[in-house]
């Protein structure tokens, strides 16, 4: 179609087919809206194709591989030297998982009447977008629009990936050969998750973090077990350390780093991975032509209904201020769809859980003790260790604890946090408890199945009330 020809009309256009975008499009279809979903690459976005799912596939494989060395004490004997990790086989497995999920999203879109267009979208005005599809250009006229273009890895010019030796998170998940040594610039959740996975597979890993500690956005007492495990894995962790210079040749990468205790040091590795943050994809989609305002960091401010300053244009996910989490984007997408369809919907809950897939994993929802006290609450907090849980001992996962943060006067649960095996699944109970405004007694009076890891919540709640069964209560 030539520019200037008649535009294709639709009720809603959704720009971006990631977890937020496709959830919005499917919900709109369910609600009887005509929907065009524009995605320039594969449905599922970064999370499904290049981030969340591939990285968890690697983390799972690395964890299973590491467990082999400890099977002897469980009575399982393997032939000497029989275990090996083959990266190309893992790549094939990863691709099969991603393909299955992406095809599933495509089928769901089709079943709900969503028109999927592959191409790059740009706003031409406040009610039109242009989409480049290969060599063609199509124009769509919409009544309402949802911006769900996500984010991309950030790297300053001095640390820009060349995608061969200096990598971003997408590159490292596409490797077909394990590097013998890997430097990770940035000790946040992406850097630590991937760093621990590669360390388990035999790579020598060095993490360089500018902040005083790893996982700097997480309460330090929750990261203690991760620091211990990183040491056991032989990882070198350099905190309060900045990268001054990075260079590479055909074979190696050399970093010059500086810290106050150690001065200037040289680190030579096979490859370097840059994981120091992400930036929103808002710079090249014509927001100015649509009259949509962005802040100084490139994010799109929205209200509780996910509306931008243009009431008929919505924004969701990583392009909006707040944590860049797939589940947050999906929730926003559903809310935006329902508001467009005239339903009374809004993002009205502060309880967005976080999950960090390190070893051990960390998950939480609500306030930490420090945050609660800073907000003026009188707090009583209690924890229960994994080492006192029967199931944890039976499966040899004794490191970690569950913690409840309780308002002293009302006994209202303010936060729940867990470090240890299966934390990503255990936190669901915490989200529901806080969403229902549960008191600590509600948690303590709920019968939890035995033997399960979920009992750590029961015992932590009982400890807050002074009558835990499997630890000595504080007087």
What does this structure look like?
The chain is α/β, with parallel strands linked by helices. It has 3 domains: 8-153 and 279-340, FAD/NAD(P)-binding domain, CATH 3.50.50; 157-276, FAD/NAD(P)-binding domain (3-Layer(bba) Sandwich), CATH 3.50.50; 360-464, Enolase-like, domain 1 (2-Layer Sandwich), CATH 3.30.390. 31% of the residues lie in helices and 25% in strands. It contains 14 helices and 22 strands. The protein has helices spanning 19-30, 45-50, 52-67, 87-111, 169-172, 189-200, 220-232, 287-290, 326-340, 369-374, 390-394, 423-435, 440-445, 455-464; strands at 8-15, 35-39, 114-118, 120-125, 128-133, 136-147, 151-153, 166-167, 181-185, 204-208, 236-238, 242-248, 253-259, 263-269, 271-274, 278-280, 313-315, 354-356, 362-366, 379-385, 401-407, 413-419. The strands form 5 sheets. Strands 1, 2, 3, 4, 5, 6 and 17 form a 7-stranded mixed β-sheet that branches. Helix 1 links the parallel strand 1 and strand 2. Helix 1 (19-30) runs parallel beside helix 9 (326-340) and helix 3 (52-67) packs antiparallel against helix 4 (87-111). The longest helix has 25 residues, at 87-111. The protein is globular, with a radius of gyration of 24 Å. The mean pLDDT is 96.
Task: Please outline the helices and strands.
Elements: E1 8-15, H1 19-30, E2 35-39, H2 45-50, H3 52-67, H4 87-111, E3 114-118, E4 120-125, E5 128-133, E6 136-147, E7 151-153, E8 166-167, H5 169-172, E9 181-185, H6 189-200, E10 204-208, H7 220-232, E11 236-238, E12 242-248, E13 253-259, E14 263-269, E15 271-274, E16 278-280, H8 287-290, E17 313-315, H9 326-340, E18 354-356, E19 362-366, H10 369-374, E20 379-385, H11 390-394, E21 401-407, E22 413-419, H12 423-435, H13 440-445, H14 455-464
């Amino acid at each position: 179609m030539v520019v200037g020809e008649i535009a294709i009309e639709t009720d809603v256009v959704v720009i971006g087919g990631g977890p937020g975008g496709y959830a919005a499009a499917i919900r709109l279809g369910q609600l009887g809206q005509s929907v065009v979903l524009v995605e320039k690459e594969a449905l599922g976005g970064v999370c499904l194709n290049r981030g969340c799912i591939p990285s968890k596939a690697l983390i799972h494989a690395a964890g299973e591989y590491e467990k082999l060395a400890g099977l002897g004490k469980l009575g399982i004997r393997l032939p000497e030297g029989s275990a090996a990790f083959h990266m190309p086989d893992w790549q094939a497995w990863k691709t099969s998982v991603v393909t299955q999920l992406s095809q599933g999203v495509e089928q769901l879109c089709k079943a709900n009447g969503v028109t999927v267009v592959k191409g790059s979208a740009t706003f031409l005005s406040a009610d039109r977008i242009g989409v480049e599809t290969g060599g063609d250009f199509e124009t769509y006229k919409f009544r309402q629009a949802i911006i769900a273009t996500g984010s991309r890895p950030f790297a300053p010019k001095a640390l820009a990936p060349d995608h061969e030796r200096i990598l971003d998170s997408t590159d490292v998940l596409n490797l077909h050969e394990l590097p013998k040594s890997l430097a990770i610039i940035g000790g946040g959740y992406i850097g630590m998750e991937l760093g621990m996975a590669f360390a388990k597979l035999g790579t020598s890993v060095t993490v360089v973090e500018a902040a005083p500690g790893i996982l700097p956005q997480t309460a330090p007492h929750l990261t203690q077990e991760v620091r211990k495990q990183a040491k056991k894995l032989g990882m070198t962790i350099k905190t309060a350390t900045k990268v001054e210079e990075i260079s590479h040749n055909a074979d190696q990468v050399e970093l010059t780093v500086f810290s106050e205790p150690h001065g200037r040091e040289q680190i030579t590795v096979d490859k370097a991975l840059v994981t120091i943050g992400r930036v929103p994809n808002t710079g090249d989609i014509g927001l100015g032509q649509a009259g949509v305002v962005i802040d100084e960091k490139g994010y799109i401010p929205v209200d509780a209904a996910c509306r931008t300053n243009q009431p008929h244009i919505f924004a969701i996910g990583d392009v909006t201020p707040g944590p860049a989490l797939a589940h947050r984007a999906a929730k926003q997408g559903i809310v935006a769809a329902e508001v467009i369809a005239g339903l009374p919907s809004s993002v009205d809950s502060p309880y967005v859980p976080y999950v960090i897939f390190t070893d051990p994993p960390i998950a939480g929802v609500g306030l930490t003790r420090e945050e609660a006290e800073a907000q003026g609450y009188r707090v009583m907090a209690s924890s229960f260790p994994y080492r006192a849980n029967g199931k944890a001992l039976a499966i040899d996962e004794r490191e970690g604890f569950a913690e409840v943060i309780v308002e002293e006067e009302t006994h209202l649960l303010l936060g729940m946090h867990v470090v240890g095996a299966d934390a990503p699944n255990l936190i669901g109970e915490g989200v529901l408890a806080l969403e229902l405004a549960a008191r600590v007694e509600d948690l303590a009076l709920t019968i939890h199945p035995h033997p399960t890891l979920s009992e750590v919540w029961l015992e932590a709640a009982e400890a807050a009330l002074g009558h835990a069964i499997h630890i000595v209560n504080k007087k």
